[in-house]
Every structure is written in C-alpha cells, then in structure tokens.
Amino acid sequence: MRYCTLAQRVGQGFPKVYGILHHMGPIIGITADHHEKRHRVAIAYAQSIISAGGVPVILPPVVSQIDHFLSICNGFVFTGGDDPQMEQWGISTLACVTPVAPERQAFETTLLTSLQDQKSVPVFGVCLGMQWMGLLAGGSLEQDLSEPQASHHTNGEHPITGELGNGLVHSHHHQALVDVGTLCVVATAEDDVIEAVRDYSRAWYVGVQWHPERTEDPALGQELFNQFVEAAQVGRVVSA
Fold first, then answer.
1. Given 15, 74, 94, 160, which is the most exposed site by the fewest CB atoms within 10 A?
2. Nearest one of 151, 171, 183 to 221, comparing CA atoms
3. How far apart are CA 205 and CA 200, in angstroms?
C-alpha cells in the first residue's frame, strides 16, 4: 500500500482546486452582527451578491481573523445594523440610541481601517456601513434626526437624487452623516440628508444610507451590487 504525505496530497490536488477557484466569481466578505450567542445577517445581502455573480462569505466579527479575511476576499460589504458607539470618536453616545455590539464595532472599524491601504479592493457600505466610512474619514454623525427628517427615513421609501441615480429607495435609520470628511457626497434626499458617499481615489468605495438589498428600483438596488461585484472581479484579475 502506498501512502502519500499531506504535502504530496495538497500538491496533487492543487491544479483542481486552482481551476475551481479560477472559474468562481469573486469572493465577497459580508459583515455580520453579533447578537447574544449568534452571528447573523439578512439573507438579502447574500442573495444580491449571488445575483451579481459573486460568492458570498459571511464574516463573524472576530478581530483576530481580519488578516485571513483580507487574504481570501476580493471585496467587502459592510452591512446595516444598530448605532455606532461614539466614544471611539471622543463624543458621548446619546441615551436614545441602540448601540451596536462592541465586538462588531471593533471588528468593522479595524477591518475598514486595514482596507484604507488596499485601494484596489472594493468596499460597499450600507446604512451603518456608510456611517463607519464617514466617521473613519473624519466626518460627523447626527445621532438622532429631528422632525420632519426623522419620519422620512425611519422605515419606508423616499426619493433620492445624485450621481448613483434618481428614484425611490428603502430606508430604515434615525441617524445620518452631517459631514463626510475626506469622502465626497454623491446622493442626497429631498430634505438634504446625505444619502451616499464615495472615495474617487479608490477603485470602488461607495457607501449608501439606504438599503439597496431591499430597494425595488434596480438602478438603486441590484445594479449597485452588480457594479460592486464587477469591480471585485476586475481587482482580482489585476492582482492575479
């Protein structure tokens, strides 16, 4: 009987594994919430990535694993969630907010900071994800929108206009960026709430305050995921 070492087995299987990976779509890391003893994220994010031709991978918020995630993912989606704990930026968090899990905040802000030096890796921030982008770019956050803005954005659809398109989007938030730091504003609502940001120095670095995974208008929903995954594919080919 002939026995093979682990190294021999890996070597024998490498062409097959490489061939499979080569023909797969880009691997997209999707951040997940930390809730009690579970990691969770809305199914719609993975469905949108799959529809765009990507391979979704759910990322548990574990800081020690960030280097591994950076080595295997071709792009990252920072998903929606609860509210930032503002003490990280030297500001007291209002009592009316629902603070995001500290494990998640530490993970996502560390991951996003690590991505600043990887300009070819696409990043898509949704709702909370866009707020992380703005805060880490030196911007500021309105922690609790006042009326009439609050009722326009808390839950439901409202129109936006800007570079990404014009139409109805699905929103579910009570906070908003009022300063985007070094980023550029690329969409606003009728009440002047900032709805989307972009960093033009990067291949694809876009944040939207609305939820594209729930938005019915294709141009402001699935099409954004399509563009994001396409950028991840281009980046993967260039870095290969």
1. 15
2. 171
3. 7
- Residue 19: inside a domain, yes or no? no
Tell me whether residue 20 is in a domain.
no
Tell me whether residue 50 is in a domain: yes
CA dihedral of 40, 111, 155, 225, whole degrees rounded to 10 = -90
N- to C-terminal Cα distance for the chain? Answer: 39
pLDDT (0 to 100) of residue 107: 98
- Cα 169–chain centre separation: 17
**Contact criterion met (CB below 8 Å) for 233 and 25:** yes
Sign, CA dihedral 38-43-45-51, equals positive
Question: Cα(143)–Cα(36) distance, rounded to whole angstroms?
Answer: 24
Most distant CA pair in the chain, distance: 78
In a domain, 174, yes or no: yes
Question: Residue 78 carries which side chain, given as an amino acid letter?
Answer: F
pTM: 0.88
- Which is nearest to 198 in space by CA: 125, 143, 142? 125
Neighbours of 88 (CB within 10 A): 14
3-state secondary structure of 230: helix
Instruction: Kindly give, in sequence order, each residue whose CB lies less than 8 Å from that of residue 181, ignoring residues fewer than 6 positions away.
Output: 134, 135, 136, 137, 138, 139
Parent domain of 68 = 26-239
pLDDT, one tens digit per residue, over 167-177 is: 999 887 788 89
Picking from 227, 211, 202, the residue whose alpha carbon sits closest to that of residue 81 is: 211
Q: Rounded CA gap, 142 and 184, in Å? A: 18
Average pLDDT over residues 29-37: 91
